[in-house]
Automatic annotation (TrEMBL):
Keywords: Disulfide bond, Signal, Zymogen. Residues 453-462 have a biased composition (Basic and acidic residues). Belongs to the peptidase C1 family. GO terms for molecular function: cysteine-type peptidase activity. This is Peptidase C1A papain C-terminal domain-containing protein. It comes from the Eukaryota. Residues 1-17 form the signal peptide.
Length: 462
């Protein structure tokens, strides 16, 4: 079977015939700046504490946290009033793990220092299509899906929790790299089956990464400082990918467990590796069309953006950084404002024509839509396309990276990608023993379907 046919067979499930409708917004009622009236009781607070397994050292601390919980309830109620009036496309609630924290506490414990996306502020001549051709993915044979959700392909590992450390950049790095390792393994299996004259398609039971514990964030916290990363104070996935490349690999989570703090010692051992990186593809800063193409046609992409403290109370819907008090967007979108890194794992459009990214966060499954959220697409909201990148992993199909002797666009190996021009075969990419055979079902889809349009999403009445 020809390689083009293999690719078409493997990826046809991602394609849809429908065209995306233009986004529309409509305010259906007046926006009041008056505080919302809501009653929040100690009983509801105790229920929330039990849900999240929290307890405080003193009654005084309990009362202080309850007062914060009440204020956050007022904030959520006011925001949800704007949500119901059509001014914003996402709702808030007190269900998540941060309802007893102030904005300043949340910022200092979970948000990294603003990062400078200097590595991606250039305009590159490389293209996604050139990259696909080099790596054995023939551009003409690819459909152009209007929607994609890589979670449905069995390549996304479970949601993790960064805890009280500004290490989101490490989770964005590992989450994206894990998916590309799994995606490449899937492609390798499809290619091998086709070469033997078998069926190149795979079922959910043939290949699955949804139970793999994945790669070592703690290694990045402890060891990647020479690449302009700063442990719990922040970093960038593009710089972390470069560290992994020059280091020769990254360990597994099992071998190098996460501690949610800077240990002061790099404990990486070179005997075994969880994954390798042979190059880094940086999306041109601010080029959201290229970001969308990469998510559609390549796989998950690490993104960084400026998160506002109100985001800690996100429940469901399309995040648009709307402030119900000022009636304005809270975040900025310059390459110097990004303070949180996540992974774009899909694209979607609501019934009323609003485009969004499906995004994997690192604040546990108790936050948002079982650890995921939707983010407004098409406006470079909060700088979502200013700092986007994804890793190139060893491949047994095509070339790992462009070669100067080929007929492909050599410029793709220029400022877009940082790599040596050689071909690594698929070996030692991850510990296969740590991948479970069975695939578990997730309830996140019910949350996502619930938020498919503003008409279908009801804000929690606090």
């Amino acid at each position: 079977m020809k390689l083009s046919a293999i690719v078409a067979s493997a990826l046809s499930v991602l394609c849809t015939a429908d065209q995306i409708a233009p986004a529309t917004t409509a305010h259906t009622g007046p926006l009041s700046n008056q505080p919302a009236t809501v009653t929040i009781t100690q009983k509801s607070f105790r229920s929330w504490l039990n849900q999240h397994g929290k307890q405080y050292e003193s009654q005084e601390e309990h009362e202080r946290r309850f007062a914060i919980y009440q204020r956050n309830g007022q904030l959520a109620a006011q925001h949800n009033r704007a949500f119901r009036a059509g001014y914003t496309s996402y709702s808030m609630s007190l269900d998540g793990p941060f309802a007893d924290m102030t904005a300043d506490e949340f910022r200092s414990s979970h948000i990294m220092e603003p990062q400078d996306c200097s590595a991606t502020t250039h305009k590159s001549s490389g293209t996604i299509d050139s990259l696909k051709a080099v790596r054995g993915m023939i551009a003409e044979e690819w459909c152009k899906p209007t929607e994609v959700d890589w979670r449905n392909k069995g390549i996304i590992t479970p949601i993790k929790n960064q805890a009280h450390c500004g290490s989101c950049w490490t989770f964005s790095t590992t989450g994206c790299l894990e998916s590309h390792v799994c995606l490449e393994k899937r492609r390798s299996m499809q290619h091998a089956a086709a070469q033997q004259g078998g069926d190149a398609s795979l079922t959910d039971h043939d290949f699955d990464c949804t139970q793999w514990t994945g790669l070592a964030e703690q290694q990045l916290v402890d060891c990647a400082q020479d690449y302009n990363n700063n442990g719990c104070d922040g970093g960038l996935p593009s710089q972390a990918f470069e560290y992994i490349y020059y280091n020769g690999g990254i360990d597994t989570e099992v071998a190098y467990p996460y501690q949610a703090e800077e240990t002061g010692t790099c404990s990486y051992k070179r005997k075994g590796k969880g994954a390798k990186v042979v190059g880094v593809y940086n999306i041109t800063s601010g080029d959201e069309k290229e970001l969308v193409q990469a998510v559609k046609e390549i796989g998950p992409v690490s993104i960084a953006y400026q998160v506002s403290p109100d985001f800690r109370l996100y429940e469901h819907g399309i995040y648009d950084s709307f402030n119900a008090t000022s009636n304005q967007t809270m975040c900025h979108n310059t390459p110097h404002d990004v303070n949180h890194a996540v992974v774009a794992v899909g694209l979607g459009t609501t019934d009323d024509g609003r485009d969004y990214y499906i995004v994997r966060n690192s604040w546990s499954k108790t936050w948002g839509m079982e650890g995921y959220f939707w983010m407004l697409r098409g406006e470079n909201l909060c700088g979502v396309s200013d700092c986007a990148s994804f890793p190139l992993v060893p491949t047994s199909v095509g070339h790992s990276t462009p070669t100067n002797g080929g007929n492909h666009d050599e410029n793709v190996a220029g400022s877009h990608m940082h790599s040596h021009m050689h071909n690594h075969m698929y070996d030692h990419m991850y510990d296969e023993a740590s991948v479970a055979d069975g695939r578990s079902s997730s309830n996140s889809e019910s949350y996502l379907r619930k938020g498919s349009s503003n008409k279908e999403v009801e804000a929690e009445k606090l």
